[in-house]
Amino acid sequence: MGLSSKYKKRILIFMLIPILLTILFLSDDFLTRIITSVILVIYIGFIIFLRDSSSRRAETEPDVPELEPLTDDKSEADQSYQTDEGEEFKIVSPVKNIEVLTAENMGAYFPRTGNREVFKPSDFKENFQKIAFEELPKDVSHDEQFGFLLEKILSVLKEAFLAHTAAFFWYNKKRQRLTLERYVSSSSAITRQKFDLEDDILGKIIQNEEPELLTDITSNAEADVIRYYNAPQGIKSFVGVPLFYGKNLTGLLVLDSKVKDAFGIEQIYSLGKIVRVISIIISLFEDKFSESQAEQRLKALTEILEKDRKFESEEDIFEMLDKTVEKLLDWDVFTFVIYNPLEQKFKTSRIINKTSLKYVGENLEVELKDTLVGKSIMSSIPVKIDDTTQTDIPRFNRNEDVSFDGTFLAIPLIYDEQNYGVLCFESLKKNYYSNSEVTFVKNATKIFAFILYSHASINVLKSLLAHDVETKVLNYQSFIERLTTDLVRSKELELPGALALIKIDDFIEEDSLFDGNPFPKVLKAIAQMIRDEMTPMNLIGRLSERVFAVYFFNTAPKDVFLWAEKLRIKVARKPISVVSKQTTFTISVGVATTTNKTDVDEILTNAELALNKALEKGGNTVKSL
Predict the structure, then answer these.
(1) Global pTM?
(2) Are residue 272 and residue 337 in the same domain, yes or no?
């Protein structure tokens, strides 16, 4: 087979190179050799340039096979594959309709890149609304509400940064201590606790007051670098940023991961924005808490001075204290110590324990020597213990059994240089009460001291009086003394007598029928009716809130029964004006004989039995025993 014209041209072109080399080496003329060298270089460069150009053109232009001219004769291939008769075959297509891309079916082959509808589950909206409308926990403190929000933020950070744990720490500069407030972690080997400041990664953030980033933590150094786990977790990356509140470092926000180089500078900047948001939330919570707490305290103090509020018994005072101290201060246990003037001792009178921990009981005598409450009583100044585990001094009594640790606060109630009691607050949290809160409670509770002073003074005055202040009849003590004397006189003279107990029946619609409490006016009206039916030989006294006693000297029991029946009808028929309405009230009477008897207790018991029989009949009845 001969060479093509293309290869013959290439051979002739390359043959020129050996000729030029021969001239270069055989010629003795210097000028000839220079000219030959220049021509050789130019010639070789020209050949290389043409070769590169053809190569690039061959790469960019596809090879197109040369087409043979068509002829009417069959090709050799057709002639070599002829079939015998009856062995021919045909290719039959199963699809008669040819598929063509149109505007209607193009989306099936080429997905649209614009607004595409995403598959949504059937409960998609309900699940989103459940998250979006989740409410803050109710009936909890502001600290717990803030913790709830903080936990939500940490949960979002953990998912967004693909972290293993997201945690927030409070920093106590005074005690040089970190407290793990909230965390969201894939690990269970982490608990909320306090950490003393050390030379680890958290301590480094505190000392330098700047973010820290670790991208490759070795396994043998993990326990020393990261201390908030109880067991090794295989943590490789860590990032932590400080939180500033009022330009003071207040807390730390940290993330960690089991992947190397999981965090970078851009994550630090993002976390900086997050801690700024948290500091703003803290500010808002603090302002809201201050305003709401001030409103609650003001409302609690103004409720004490309500127009219709009366403190006629210790139970009324206890009820007032229960409602007021709940809004003045946060506490886990409240104890009210009151002074008993008859025994001249301080005793625990009211205890409210919100915890399940063991505490002291009521009527426990307070030892004035070597106790916290005793020191408050003797010095007339508040006593605040920030950490009860740091002192061995008992709270109330050396024999007390208390399994309680935290903060203890005792506020004495002083009026006119006399101590009437002590308000004791206790919290499970240490260092819980500030000095400003102590000052506020001390000033606010002066009204309590005045109320106790007034109550004690009234009780002393009542004990000196022989008559009931409201009804002007003998009080219980004076009536019993006079009755004892008259019974002895009646027996010596062998004269008959009887005792009638008169009780005002309960009002069926006492709270709903009238505006306010109608009982004081009803009490005075019925007491006046009883006095109108009295004679100089009768003795009348008030034994309790609704019960009067009338002793009839030298009167037969049957005549007393008739008198009681007449009084019952009179009271039932006479309407009593209460506010803008008039209505009737009823009484029940029990009569017991006193003839030849001097035992006051026996006579009172018999009269009460008769009165109970009258009450069993539904009231408005007279019974005799």
Answers:
(1) 0.44
(2) no
